[in-house]
Amino acid sequence: MRVVVAKKLVSTVGGSETFARALERELRALGHDVTLVGMRPPWRRAGMDAGGLTLLDVRGGRLGAAVDALLPTTLVRADDLRRVVAGADVVHSLAREWAGELASAARAAGAAFVETPLVHPGQPFSGGGRADLARYRRDDALIALTEWEAAWYRARGVARVHVTGIGPNLAALPDVPREPATVLFVGRKERYKGYHALRDAAPLVWRERPDARFVAIGQPAWSARLARPRADPRWIERGVVSEREKAEAFARATIFAMPSEHETFGHAYLEAWTAGLPVVAGDIPPLREVVREGVDGLHARNEPRAIADAVLALLADPDGARRMGAAGRERARAEFSWPAVARRTEAVYAAAVTSRDGLRALR
Question: Among 68, 102, 192, 332, which has the minimal tally of Cβ within 10 Å of its Cβ?
């Protein structure tokens, strides 16, 4: 099967970007002819010099690329999209970027159109608008990452919904000693991810556990330059790091905390489980499905006291925390490996082609 996977930004930074890379790799391993399409970025991003990418220029040159990278715009040329999808059996849009134009190009090429919207209800540009919902209903197949997300689409009249899950993106763990009280955050340093509340939770934790350390890894928010850095050596700020450095941080940490209030799945929890860590996840419906309370992690509202209480509970019960991390590792291995996700995605493609052929027969 010839498959075009499209994601506006396809660097190796960010959950949906690494999702695109991993899916391409695993679909190739299943024998499919896969083209990964993205935008030529206006600035250098990690992984953009890797092979296997088809990068498209957008209208407006570097300025247009900067706008398209930052905003939910679609400045790619329709002719370029039609060119890259020509001859495809399936066109798969990851996230909603370029989705409308990709859907049009796929139909013009006679290809089935599949979409993974990664909807974030409640956020600006969340994917819940009228035009988005109308497109989801037309898709030959729509992929959700959780049953909660699938139910959200079905409640809004989307019929052809499938659930695939996602896999972890973590390099081999180095053989380094596990630290006794280190809380790790890996993600975009945005308020909705729980980063700010975690910063404010740290002093509450230190009142009872002055030995606790916090390590925050990820891309800063645009407003970070306006924030005052925390003047405490027990709070360690790191930016975007290499995959090797990220794996070492997971290997050393005691707890992973990302108490997000908007998440489709949260692939970083899988990375934490792969490293055998218990997680502190946001207390929202999709994350209550992903993280089993008291089994492989705890849930906490995106506010300092709740986060501090969860962290302190795990630090106070190291044996229980280790059991949660082990349960998470087993679940990630059994349910959320990339080969398993790719096989489920392959089945969605087959269903989408059947749906497309059925609609053709009715015309």
Answer: 192
